[in-house]
Amino acid sequence: MNLRLLPFPLNVYAQTLAFEYGADYQRAAHLHFGVFDAAQSNNGDHPASDYISAQQSAQELLLAYLLAIPASVLEWGFGDGSLARALGNLGYRIDALSNDAEEYRHVRSVVGDGASANLHFHCTDFAQFHPDERVDILVLQQSAQYLDPLLLLTRAADLLRPGGQLLIVDEFLLDDTRREPQPRPLLTHFLQLSERCGLTVERQLELGDRVAPGLAIFHELLRKHRDTLAAALQIDLASIDNLTADLAKQNENFLAGRFGYTLLDLRRGPLHEHDVVYGSIGSFQIDEVRPIFESSFDARFDPAVWQWKYGGGRGRAVCARIDRLLIGHYGGAPRDIRYFGKPDKAIQICDVMVMPEYRSFANRDTLFFKTAATFLEQQIGNAANHLLGFGFPNMRVLQMAKRLGLYDTTDTFIELHYSPQSEPADAAFEVVPFALSEPESRLTVDALWEQMAGDLREQIVGVRDWTYLYYRYCTHPLWAVGGYVCVALHHRGMGEIAALAILKPHEGGRLLMDIIGATDGFPEQLRALNAWLTEGGESLCCRITEGQAQHLTLPGCERRDLGIEIPCNSWTRGPLADELKGAWWLTAGDMDFL
Questions:
Q1: Where are the domain boundaries for CATH 3.40.50.150 in the chain?
Q2: Considering the entire predicted model, what is its pTM?
Q3: Is the Cβ–Cβ distance between 331 and 376 less than 8 Å?
Q4: How many CB atoms lie within 10 A of CB 191?
Q5: Distance in angstroms (rounded) separating the CA atoms of residues 174 and 172
Q6: Distances in Å between the alpha carbon of 71 and those of 65, 91, 269, 366, 371?
Q7: Sign of the torsion formed by the C-alpha atoms of 129, 133, 139 and 144
Q8: pLDDT per residue over 254-294, tens digit each?
Q9: Spelled out in words, what is the top-level CATH class assigned to the domain 3-268?
Q10: pLDDT tens string 111-154
Q11: Domain 416-590 listed as CATH 3.40.50
């Protein structure tokens, strides 16, 4: 195998084994952890030679849990092909898959074109392989981590016969009490999703403390071969040093029980007519959305707005189908935020849709609950990419989601209507058009945003730098038809821009979508903006979370209740609602449908 062609860090692991074991390399070439026996694990002192036998023990352990021969097996991620060959030699009928061209070239060079009657290797993506009939066993040895759990489990339900076995041994997160985004799925969420996909747990074995000794061994091997690895694989030393540090941290997490190396034996339940099949944002086409959208919102579906929101890899979603028809959708739009002054990520919940005949919020067996819970588990929480979720649901959906334990509330959304006023002769600000769409405006916008972010360091606010504002407004379909206008508020007679405001036509006047600048200047700037609009015969209103309304309130303005509460996630582990109450800075510009 040309180890240089393997993806990082597999190339480093394989090359390290080759350097260390020389002639014994083929026996140690498995691209997975070794499993030490309990006595060895407690001993704590292991020679490097133990790693070979521990890798072989890991494979033997997996084989011991397989359903009996005869059985058909599908393996995803065959690595060097050792597990597939062992299964073939035992008499299983096996199709082994990998999308890595070098792994495929290697196994073909070892087994030849003919392979055997019951062993076939395929170079293909997991989602693209379709056997002629359902299989008895789907096995993944430390390759599940490279698949989206939703894809893995829905495909497993589709590939396995009733009573068939999904056998996985891989890394999982066991403890999500601290904020740290993880590529490993949280085990509790994985098992909950398995159940929704029709898979039940037959056996579960935790091996974390038995793989930790191998990580300690490999940590020392990387340090020993550091320079020769960099030269052989043509990678920089910093990459190897970072990997060495990661292994040390990973070893600590296994020993502390935060990470698990878990063997899961899951079984496919019975098939039912009209089973629900779940998918992610890549599992449906935009032309499938119109029926469910228009039946859910009583509004015309606009493909251009949908593409603006979700296209280019921006959006996230969980969808549901019955008999190939899209019947449920729970979407989200990621946002960079400042979380009490620190950079983090949130996701705005949007386009929560269920076809009328499946629209029930009664309990946790409904389509709404299952799509919502799956989305929250995948996208929001301490271990997810997005720490927070927020949105603008109608009151009925919010109340049902609260009752089901999915949401809590953090604030209410209100509308402020400003009384018409004339501009005094000594007004400090004047209003002029601002070319937000021009790249030259970046420095101005970014400077104003940093002032605002500093003022809101005790709040939670979505990033409003030039990159975001350009996407939010200038690439929106409304921009091309004059649906948004950006103006600057200048210090009169000085030319210095103190704030920017984005406006949209609304009920015969203008809705303030966003204002960016130092927050202590907002009241005076709003007076100037309101006077400018009054002179043109237009009124001004804004939408703001009630907890932040004092920043945009003027004497005599009218407050109107919109009947909208701002939710937060309460299904997965993350900040509690009490920590978030009144802290969100949200305006009309944060609403995806305005």
A1: 3-268
A2: 0.93
A3: no
A4: 18
A5: 6
A6: 13, 8, 17, 35, 34
A7: positive
A8: 999 999 999 999 999 999 888 999 999 999 999 999 999 99
A9: alpha beta
A10: 765 457 799 999 999 999 999 999 999 999 999 999 999 999 99
A11: no
